[in-house]
Design a protein that fits this description.
Shape: elongated
Number of strands: 8
Number of domains: 1
Distance between the termini: 82 Å
Radius of gyration: 23 Å
Length: 162
Amino acid sequence: MSIRDALGAVPAKPIILTVVLFTAVAAAWHGWTLKTVCTHRAELTASLQGWASAALQRRAANAALATATNFEWDEVRIAHPKEIDPRSQNCPFDWHWSNEKLSALAKSGNLTLFGFVKDGSIVEIVDFDRENAQFDVTTKPISRESAVFRASGRAKLGKTVP
């Protein structure tokens, strides 16, 4: 019996149905996972932007970054990238920012990335629109205890004005 004969002996309709069902389950799983990741990123970004806006509005002398997060971390790194990795997570359907929006923010100089680290491993990466607030960048990581920021300037429509 050849391979051709073996394939010919297999009924076609059950295989087609199995392939279609497998494809539908795989697509649904991918969509659910993507939605979960993107909505989590959107919640973290909104939390950080709300924290920054509140600190600016009350001109907080000491605004602890730990109050903006609901997860454990030891240190944070802050960066202003000029471009993003094209393999980053694209979030469709306004679940969060798409790769195109992140690229546009980076090219315009309005993207800040916060990388939260716990025991040497990245826990979360949060993207932030710098039109809401500006953060100075250092090349060194900032410890959780030292991640206390002073709001400067005056808040106007959620933006920092020098």
